[in-house]
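Whiteboard transcription, Tuesday session. T.W. wrote the structure tokens on the left side:
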């Protein structure tokens, strides 16, 4: 945690596109909000702080997706909350992309989720949550409304952005060949991903050529780094990018490699027979199949999704930080769920470390 309390003035590159310059706002990129009609108030709260800290200057478009039709009330509410110049689209997800696939045995699913529920696993019996995790893992990047975009910044209801961002985050991704951007790293509940790692290893044995020579493998493995009560899952540390904030390079997700990977997992049924989250599924793919130098930790972006916060210490006058620097959780003893230290230990290079 001490590293987080030192001042963050990043990214440390000399090609940042600043607000107001000709190139600002020119990346092929969108905010992506997968929400229900009843999430209206929550998503308005999120996009208001996003507009204030970033997008009033860059004017990137919003794409809203739903497995149901958006109501007129929802659409009006969003348009009223955004500046008149904002570009906004509302889309529906095909049932065939969203719903439980035919090869899942419903009785088996119900029995297994009954058991997970009894062990206290959240959302185990909520079918829509399983569908959502599968959709974010396997299908969102193929939605026709995203076809012309190269980057998507996921935004969820009820989150906050705290610090002014004075450069074009999407152009940073594009100009520096980034495949993924994250803010927070957490351990997962091993009960949700018991067979995920062994299943991925089967896939890797079929496709050894897919492994990236500069991958972040060590970060994924159980290295004995976890505190008490945080057990790994059959070789996987369970550390993952917390995907409620993620900036994805859609070309990576639309690649044959990623699609083969997620199809393989899907066929095994773990989105239903277990409660595989899109976060561990995505994180494992990135750490195995992408160049670790193309995965960027946005330590400078102040962000919170209950109950965790990425609150960087910044030049306050310039960036107006409104959270407590270095504080990962506002209360309680959840600090042990934080695995940012393992990303630093196993993935960051020495010259990156010097910066911190
Ligand atoms: P949590 O953060 O893991 O508790 O999950 P959330 O409830 O925040 O869901 C993750 C994202 O998926 C949020 O953007 C939700 O609005 C969205 N989401 C979850 N379930 C559904 C659903 O059934 N339909 C739609 N349209 N969106 C959903
Ligand atoms: Mn959420």
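and on the right, the sequence the group agreed on:
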């Amino acid at each position: 945690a001490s590293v987080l309390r030192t001042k963050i003035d990043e990214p440390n590159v000399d090609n940042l596109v600043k607000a107001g310059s000709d190139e600002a706002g020119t990346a092929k990129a969108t905010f992506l909000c997968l929400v229900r009609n009843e999430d209206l108030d929550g998503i308005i709260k999120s996009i208001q702080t996003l507009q204030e800290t970033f997008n009033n200057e860059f004017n990137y478009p919003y794409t809203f997706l739903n497995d149901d039709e958006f109501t007129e009330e929802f659409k009006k509410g969003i348009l009223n909350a955004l500046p008149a110049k904002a570009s906004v689209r509302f889309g529906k997800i095909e049932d065939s992309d969203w719903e439980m696939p035919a090869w899942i045995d419903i009785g088996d699913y119900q029995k297994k989720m009954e058991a997970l529920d009894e062990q206290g696993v959240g959302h185990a019996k909520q079918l829509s949550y399983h569908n959502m995790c599968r959709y974010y893992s396997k299908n969102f990047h193929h939605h026709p409304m995203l076809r012309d975009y190269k980057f998507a910044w996921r935004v969820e209801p009820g989150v906050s952005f705290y610090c002014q961002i004075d450069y074009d985050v999407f152009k940073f991704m594009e100009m520096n060949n980034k495949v993924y951007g994250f803010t927070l790293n957490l351990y997962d509940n091993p009960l949700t991903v018991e067979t995920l790692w062994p299943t991925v290893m089967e896939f890797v044995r079929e496709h050894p050529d897919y492994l990236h020579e500069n991958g972040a493998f060590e970060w994924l493995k159980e290295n004995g780094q976890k505190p008490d009560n945080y057990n790994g899952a059959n070789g996987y540390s369970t550390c993952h990018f917390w995907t409620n904030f993620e900036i994805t390079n859609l070309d990576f997700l639309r690649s044959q490699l990623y699609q083969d990977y997620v199809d393989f997992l899907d066929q095994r049924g773990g989105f239903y027979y277990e409660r595989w989250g899109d976060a561990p599924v995505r994180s494992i793919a990135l750490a195995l199949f992408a160049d670790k130098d193309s995965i960027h930790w946005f330590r400078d972006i102040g962000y919170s999704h209950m109950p965790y916060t990425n609150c960087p210490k910044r030049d306050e006058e310039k960036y107006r930080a409104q959270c407590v620097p270095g504080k990962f959780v506002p209360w309680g003893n959840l600090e042990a769920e934080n695995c940012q230290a393992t990303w630093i230990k196993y993935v960051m290079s020495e010259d990156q470390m010097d910066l911190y």
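Someone added at the bottom: Residues 214 and 291 are 5 Å apart (CA to CA).
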